[in-house]
Write a structure and sequence with these properties.
Elements: E1 6-8, E2 59-62, E3 68-72, E4 77-80, E5 91-95, E6 101-109, E7 119-128, E8 140-146, E9 158-164, E10 173-174, E11 181-183, E12 186-195, H1 210-213, H2 217-227, E13 230-231
Antiparallel strand pairs: 1-12, 2-3, 3-13, 4-5, 5-6, 6-12, 7-8, 7-10, 8-9, 9-12, 11-12
């Protein structure tokens, strides 16, 4: 069983390695020896449902505007970062019990994707989220990656999990990761970045594959937290 890995979230300028504006090259997560996506990872694999988890004691968080709610483990915390929120939106950060940033939830984002180039695409996990359907279309939770070691051999693969309204890529390549979904009059994001060589306090860095990370308790907890997002009662 692999050790617990680090997952962190950033703002729009860097979060999810998205292309809010055209970058000069593939985004960098770390200069450490992060493994590239394996050949197996480049074949999209879909897990239909999350593994069971004892959620009887999980807590529920409702956003300050009363619009959305999600569940999270009892030893985790939610930090309100309202000063960094988009006008009329919310910005909260989900932290593990050790204080590691697991994901951020933002709403009322006014931006649009850019696609300066396409890179080899990997899909480790996917699940449709009917509770967040807008105009008849439901977004998906995905854990995905991009790899461009052919052009940038020293750059690690970009890996992220979150909710997206973007259509699935066709073929083996895709635009840079842009995990936003339609919500209200703008876009929202509930997502995080996966970096296997960044450790939280008390953890040891351990390079591993993104496929192996999906077998960990940490991944199950953050997956179930994100996929529990729903309109508040």
């Amino acid at each position: 069983m692999p050790t617990r890995k680090a997952v962190f979230a950033l703002s729009c300028a860097a979060v999810l390695m998205t292309a809010c504006s055209a970058p000069t090259g593939p985004p960098v997560v770390s200069e450490s020896a992060t493994p590239s996506l394996s050949k197996a990872a480049l074949t999209p694999a879909v897990r239909a449902t999350a593994r069971p988890s004892a959620q009887a004691e999980w807590k529920t968080y409702t956003t300050p505007d009363g619009q959305l709610a999600f569940d999270y483990p009892p030893d985790w915390n939610v930090k309100d970062r309202a000063r960094e929120a988009a006008p009329g939106g919310v910005f909260v950060e989900v932290l593990s019990g050790a204080g590691k940033s697991m994901a951020t939830l933002r709403t009322n984002i006014q931006t649009k994707p850019d696609c300066p180039a396409k890179y080899p695409y990997a899909l480790m996990d996917s699940q449709v989220l009917p509770a967040l359907k807008q105009d008849g279309a439901a977004p998906r939770f995905i854990f995905e990656g991009r790899d461009d070691h052919g052009s940038y051999p020293t750059r690690p693969a970009s890996l992220a999990y979150g909710i997206t309204s973007a259509p699935p890529p066709v073929g083996p390549s895709a635009c840079p990761i842009f995990q936003f979904f339609d919500w209200g009059s703008g876009l929202a994001a509930f997502s995080g970045v996966y970096n296997p060589v960044v450790a939280a306090p008390g953890d040891t860095p351990d390079v591993d594959t993104p496929e192996a990370y999906t077998a960990t308790e940490e991944y199950d907890e953050v997956r179930q937290t994100i996929t529990s997002l729903r309109p508040a009662d």
